Structures are given as C-alpha cells and as structure tokens.
Amino acid sequence: MTDVQTAPAPEGSTTKPKRRINLGFDKYSGLYVWGLLVVIFALWIPDLFLQVSTFKQVLTFQAIAAIVALGVIMPIAAGAFDLTIAGTLTVSVCFTAWALNSHHGIVFAAGGSLILGVIVGLANSLVVVKLKVDSFIGTLGMSSILIAVAYMITDSSQIVLSTGGYAPFFEFARTEIFGLPRSVYYAAGIALFFWWILEYTPGGRYLYAVGGNPVASRLAGVRVARVITIAFITSGVTSAFAGIVYLSTIGTATPDSGSGYLLPAFSAVFLGATQIRPGRVNVLGTLVAIFLLATGVTGLQLAGAPSYVTQLFNGAALIIAVALASRTARRQG
Known about the structure:
Layout: E1 3-6, E2 19-22, H1 25-44, H2 46-49, H3 52-77, H4 85-101, H5 106-130, H6 135-154, E3 159-160, H7 167-174, E4 176-177, E5 180-181, H8 182-200, H9 202-212, H10 214-219, H11 224-250, E6 252-253, H12 262-272, H13 283-302, H14 309-332
Antiparallel strand pairs: 1-2, 3-6, 4-5
C-alpha cells in the first residue's frame, strides 16, 4: 500500500533526486477513512462500540446490502442504471412469504423468487435495449410497477412467518458458522464470484468495454445488447436472492421491505469506484464502501443520533461518491 517514488532530477543537476512517499490515498482513501471512523467511535463510545455484538450486527445486516450492491455493479459496469433493485428485493420477499404461508414449499417459494428476478432483468433489458428508453427512466418506471406488484401480493398488509413452522427456511440465513450467520458467507461468496468474473474473464472485459464505449465495442464485434441483457438479469437474480436472505433473516414481509436498500447500494458502488481500481466500479472497492458507510451509521446511532441520520448519511455519501467518481474519471481522461 505504501510506495516510495523517486522524483526525477532536472537535467544537468548534481543533486540527488528527492524521494516521495506515496501512501496510496488515491486508491485506499476509503480504508483510511474507515480506520479513522473506528478510532473515533472507539474513543467516543467505547462501551457501546467496542463490542463483539456490534461488529456481528454490522456484518449480519450489511450482508443483505452487500448482496444488493454487488448485483447493481454489473449493469453500472455496462453503462446502465438498474433502479429496480429495491423493487425486485421487495417482490422477492413478498412472493416468498406468500408462497410459504400458502404451503407451496420452500423450493417453490425460493425458486419462484429467483425466476421473478430473471423476469425483471429481461423486462429491464426489453425497455432499455429494445425500446431504447434511457436506463435511469426505464428502470425507475419498472421499479414503480414492482412496488405495485408487491402491494398486490401482500394485499397491502404485513406477512409474518412463524419461526416454528418454517424452521428450515430460517436456518438458510440464520444458522451461524464460526459465530457468523450464513448470510455473511453468501455475501462473501457472491463477492468472490463477481470479482473473478469482472477481473479474470472475457465477460468482465466486455462489461467494462460496453460501459466505456458501446459504439466502439459494437464495432469491435461485442454483442452490446446481449451484454447489457445479461447484466440486467444478473442484477435481478442477485436482488431476488437478497430478498430470500432478507426474509430468512427478518421473518416479515411488507410492501416496502426493500425501500432502504436503493440509496446505500448506489452510494457504495459509486464510492467504491474511487477505491482500489479508481475510475471504474469494482467489487473490492464496493465492499470497502459498504462497511465504511455501515460503520459511520452504526456509530452515530449508538452515540444517540436521531433515526433520520441513516438517510442523511447515505444521501450525503451518494452525492460525495458521485462527485469523487466523476473527478476520478476526468483525471483519467
């Protein structure tokens, strides 16, 4: 992380070149800020913050946010926005809860939710690729439709699963391994898989190429429409899976279950684009951003900040993240 660089001496000079220390602020500033937040809250509220239960809680509840954010990386890498992630998560939660309460079985409930994720991805690609609607506007409209579907599934009410009747389903996300619930390992597995795709496969190179210049990619033989479609489907399935994990963790479905995940996901992805691989969205940077934001929000809440601090913090983080990402992109040219 720490590099020593040598500045070239002027021509004809007899003085030794100056050595500059590069601490990696351009790539790892998020890690520095994260560490600073940990130190601040550790000194401010040590009795509340420096608890194993606090870090376990952050990991548990941010696992779902991480899964959602990882899914949205794919369309953004391809140059498209997917604002349906929260709606897809909500429909997944509501459908799974309805199917379980209707005694259709876990396989039908979970499998149906993943299929719904595929359908949402295909619908998004139809609107954006075939109908040529801007991805921001198209997926925003689709998101509203999904919320309406969630209200229809739940009949505008809350669906509560009883712990005793659905023990195997609750074990899917709640069972602990080495002190952490399975949901954390699901997020880690998805992160590892997406990191491998983006960094080491032709599919990842196609995504970045399409996001960087779709016209040049098309002229180079890349099937741009197919790449964007696959990105939307991946985002839809990942969000639907996050919905299954959410229901297994919380046990309750409401028509606004996913409303709190849209802003943190985009904040994390754009802030992550300024980390590790500055100038482009990436998995490792997104994970750093997710837990940086979570640490800030959790610390403020433990310190007694009002409930609206979460929305305030995430909104400000999104603005700052987009500004930093745009600045990085301009610097790189």
